[in-house]
Amino acid sequence: MSTSEAKEALHQFANKLASHHLGPLWDNIGEMVTPQPSNGVTPYLWKWQTIRKYLLEAGSLLSLGRASERRVIYLQNPSLLKEGKIGYATNTLYAGVQLLLPGEIAPSHRHSQAAIRFIIEGDGGAYTTVDGEKTYMRRGDLILTPPWTWHDHGHEGGEPVFWMDGLDVGLVKTLTGSFFEPYHDDTYPVTGEPDRSVLRYASGVRAISERKKYGYPSPLINYKWSNIQKTINDLSKLEPDPYDGYAVDYINPTTGGSADARLGTSMQKLPPAFHTRAHRHVHSVVYHVLEGTGYSVINGQKFEWSSGDFFVVPPWSWHEHHNSGETDSFLFSLNDRPVMELLGLEKEDVLQENGGYQQIESVFEPITL
Ligand code: GTQ
């Protein structure tokens, strides 16, 4: 048999297999077992002013109730929008921004996805209840809604409140683990003292009544910005991390592990002119700029950001951050690192060339209003 005849015979053979819904590994191994993580997810950046403006517009168009459930505009990474897909921020992570107007209630429900909220704008009058514990939302707070806990949001204040929602929607969908249940009433009964977990666990100590609690979910549901900010500022007296600046992970105070078992959350401070070195890791990240001005270089592309913006670092992408403003920058981020670590898939690589900094090959142009 000549080479071309042998090729043709194999091609015919593959067709024969296909008619029985069988596949030849020798044609597809390269796509299954890639030398490095590759999933076609590209970095992207969304401007805060666009999201905020459209949310206020949604505020006058959409009323809240069971028909709408939540008033959220979410990040649709264009690289994940192919083939009629609804698109998330990365293949595992979903992030959106929710608007609640004074007096409104986003009705109680529970789901198997883990959720976190990071408060962007609020006067302290809005709250979430998590299995009956009511906690008030202030700018910069991180609030946990562990999987399968009842939660509703309400607003006793006078100004619109905006917060970031982060859920492991893509992960749970891929693993086919999604369950959802509405509560039979709009609100779940509030029990006990509001913010009791904050009162019991602030500052890394715990009330002695809590000694027997260990494991997931975290008994602390609101990581107050005032506490986190103080910790990060204290940390700034020490050496910064070269890849992340002055950075902390939000942790479960009973285990020392990630605050949420599946969703990783971090806060990092970059002082003026601070420039982190480039690294890459398997876990993907959604960043939200709490404060400051600067840029990040992701796979050679420059993404300029300022307060309120969101951007995505896909899996295994080189990235470094630079504060180009005159005040400290604070970056909140959501990631899937706990899952990657649990599954033994996490890996990190640091850039050796060029002193650890990437060459900027292009500048991302965000769509403006
Ligand atoms: O507030 O419970 O952005 O269930 C997506 C799903 C928010 C919520 C989202 C949700 C919620």
From TrEMBL:
Stretches that traverse the bilayer: none
Pfam families given in the database record: Cupin_2
Keyword Transferase: no
Top-rank taxon: Bacteria
Keywords: Dioxygenase, Oxidoreductase
GO MF term list: dioxygenase activity
Record bears the keyword Oxidoreductase: yes
InterPro entries noted in UniProt: Cupin_2, GDO-like, RmlC-like_jellyroll, RmlC_Cupin_sf
Domain called Cupin type-2: residue spans: 97-165, 267-328
UniProt protein name: Cupin
Organism: Brevibacillus panacihumi W25
